[in-house]
Amino acid sequence: MTDPSGAMDAMELPRRVAARLNLLFEAVRPAALQRPWTSEEAAERAGVDLGYVEALRAGTLPPPEVDPPIDQGQREKLFAQRLDCLFRTRLSPRTGKRVTQTEVAQALQTNKQHVGNLRNGKNNPSIVLAQKYADFFEVDVGYFCADPLSAVAACFGHAKEFLVLADDDPYVVRATADLRLLRAMADRRVRKVVGRLVDRYEASAGDPAGEPGADPGADPDADPAGSGSPPPGPRG
Questions:
Q1: pLDDT in tens, 47-74
Q2: Whole-angstrom Cα distance, residue 130 to residue 152?
Q3: pTM for the whole thing?
Q4: Which residues are CB-contacts of 218 (< 8 A; sequence separation ≥ 6)?
């Protein structure tokens, strides 16, 4: 028989990662979105499979698959995968549309075909070239070879250690407190906005004229603003 306590201990890492990753999703709101990321958006930005992110958040991955090792063959493919992810998710500051291979080629003083070969995994870049791509897309050069869990954590501005270290680790304690504060502040802002909308709705619903924004104390015979017409006088 399987020891229940042993089974619980074995799943401690997936549960820990799930709790902290979900806290990151709740607390961190990218400025461009003004809302939390979805699992799909985080997966695209990290250059990992959506199923991996969803399983991390659910805490259902076996411990060895939470932070899987990467062999040299996989690492060589990562650059192409992550570069393609950047092309699919980043917008050009010049056009406001997705970055094109032509635009990158011009910026890096190379040709479009070479950019395409790197993106398709036909060529592998040198360290110097990888740094140029990192500078262009404003990411750390380690993004191109980071393991999946590190890439996911980096989306939220944290290192992988935040997800895996013990609860009493000083880094985890500080980061958790900061994230809970951010989440509370975001929740208060949302409640404030919703409260204002409810107040406006209730005010319009209580309007005796039945028209939103109408002044209940206004004289019904008063001249509407800007009409220029006097109120009707007594009939002769």
A1: 888 999 999 999 999 999 999 888 777 7
A2: 20
A3: 0.66
A4: none
